[in-house]
Amino acid sequence: MAILPIYTYGAEVLKKTAKPVKAVSDELRELIDDMFETMYQANGIGLAAPQVGVSLRLLVADISMIEEYAETAPMVIINPQILSTRGEATMEEGCLSIPGVRETVTRPKLITLKYRDENFEEHIEEIDGLMSRVIQHELDHLNGELFVEKLDSKTRRDLKEELEAIKRGDVEAEYELAEK
Ligand SMILES: [Zn+2]
Predict the structure, then answer these.
(1) What would the CATH number be for the domain defined by 12-168?
(2) Spans of all domains in the chain
(3) Which of these, 38, 49, 97, 155, could form a disulfide with 54 (CB 3.0-4.6 Å)?
């Protein structure tokens, strides 16, 4: 397994619409393992493939380090599609691709998600709580969107300098960042 450098705000790969995964190959399994290792090393709870420079519709999530969710199994999510949503929830979010920035974002509370797992088996599941939040955030990455784009214009203005600095590569994190 390997720890992969994380692409940050401004990187082209984070602006692209990622391509569907066609099959689970050994190469893809290795990427999944590397993504988990990279996420754990960075103390993240979710990571999308574009964040490690791979433009595929794949994400991993593990929220079990949070006490309340200790029993929640890690998830490998391939080609996700939100079929429906319910409710609304407001939560603070951060992103490994935007080190140091945390802001409150409102999103649907519950999602009905169609996806394939690491064996390429299809599932349709209702997902609530923090896992719903993480999946929605990571799914945005597959569509070239970042959570800071969901913020109101004032908050975005306040963040402008910080984001510009990240874009320039003028940023530090406790994990490896991809070179600009
Ligand atoms: Zn993110």
Answers:
(1) 3.90.45.10
(2) 12-168
(3) 49
Asked if residue 1 has pLDDT above 90, the reply is no
Among 138, 164, 172, 176, the one annotated catalytic: 138
CA of 124 to the centre of ligand 1 (A): 23
Tokens of 99: 């080190």
- pTM exceeds 0.70, yes or no: yes
- The DSSP annotation for the chain comes to --PPPBP-TT-GGGTSPPBPP----HHHHHHHHHHHHHHHHTT-SEEEGGGGT--BSEEEE--TTSGGGTTPPPEEEEEEEEEEEES-EEEEEE-TTSTT-EEEEEE-SEEEEEEE-TT--EEEEEE-HHHHHHHHHHHHHHTT--GGGGS-HHHHHHHHHHHHHHHHT----SS-B---
CA of residue 92 to ligand 1 center, whole Å: 12
d(CA 97, ligand 1 centre) in Å:
6
Model confidence pLDDT, tens digit, residues 138-156:
999 999 999 999 999 999 9
Q: Is 30 a catalytic residue?
A: no
